[in-house]
Amino acid sequence: MNRGAGGPSMRMVAEAANVSVATVSNVVNGKTTVSPEIAERVRAAVEALGYVRDNRAARLRSGQSRLVGLIVPDLTNPMFASFVSTLEHLARLDHYDLVVVSTRNDPDEEAERLGKIREWRPAGLIVLPCDGALVDRLPRNLAMPLVVADRIPDVPRFDLVAVDNASGAAAITRQLAGRGITRCLALGTSLQISKFANAGKAPSRAPGGWRSI
User: What are phi and psi of 159, to 5 degrees?
Assistant: First the structure.
């Protein structure tokens, strides 16, 4: 059987399983309109022929992407690695795949990555930015859903998933002040990162006259 330069086609799978091309398409795209017996026959033909679904062609036909872009500051950081792992699992449950890139906490590299990942035409983009100045690095006419996570942008124009670090730090300082502790040092990598900057503002609001430095 001639497989052609691109490998076995959907039509070849249909012939092997004695079904229509539309039925093969329904099975490989996860639709539940095919009876279990026929679906199993199609999957057996897919396995026997080594057929691989062409995501590029599927996207062109449907006009929809099943990719989600994810930009993180540092993949060697265990917190970000855990975030990527969890998000990848959740995306797979909804039949999406992730394109993950790291910016190495470099704003210039983040700007470059934002432009490059847009070329993939993902269905959406999740960004854990280097700092609060994300809006200055976004490409013009991004034209896709964007969610910012972890670090709060200076300009509040994005959907955001983040921890209220200021309230958390204030609660901790109140607890410590209640125990008579009057001096405290909090360490963070950079005050350009919102979660450290916001947490640093909390002691000035706590009882006992604490001040951030």
Answer: -65, 135
